Amino acid sequence: MKESSEEFALAFISAGSIWVECEFCQRVHFADDPSAGDFEEGELEALRASAEEKPDEFCGHDGSAYWSIWEGKALVLGCPCGADVKLEREVWDARDWITNYLVARATVEADDAAETKRRADAAAKAIREAK
Fold this sequence. Notes:
Blueprint: H1 6-12, E1 15-17, E2 19-21, E3 28-31, H2 43-53, E4 58-61, E5 65-70, E6 73-76, H3 83-93, H4 95-130
Parallel strand pairs: 3-4
Antiparallel strand pairs: 1-5, 2-3, 5-6
């Protein structure tokens, strides 16, 4: 897999910005479109010049640069370093134990919610009977 899937992007990517640094490789990604956001005067031109001069350090996008946080670092969708592809592969490879965890956790949460409802119903009944 050379690119992360659309499903991964929809599930994991949580933000879009006019520029963001991929903290897995320190590459700066930017929206190469003046209508994409509130660039300060000269900012987009400076980013474009940097991308021309240092293409391995600056990467323009047709629209916003989409990103999320993984391991406390900004991860940029489509970054040439492939951090998004690596994360998707790790999640997919661990899907069985992740699914088992989610089922177990959801069961605990559902049991807790049922107990809270039982207590609330008992309290409501006691209040009605006290009137």
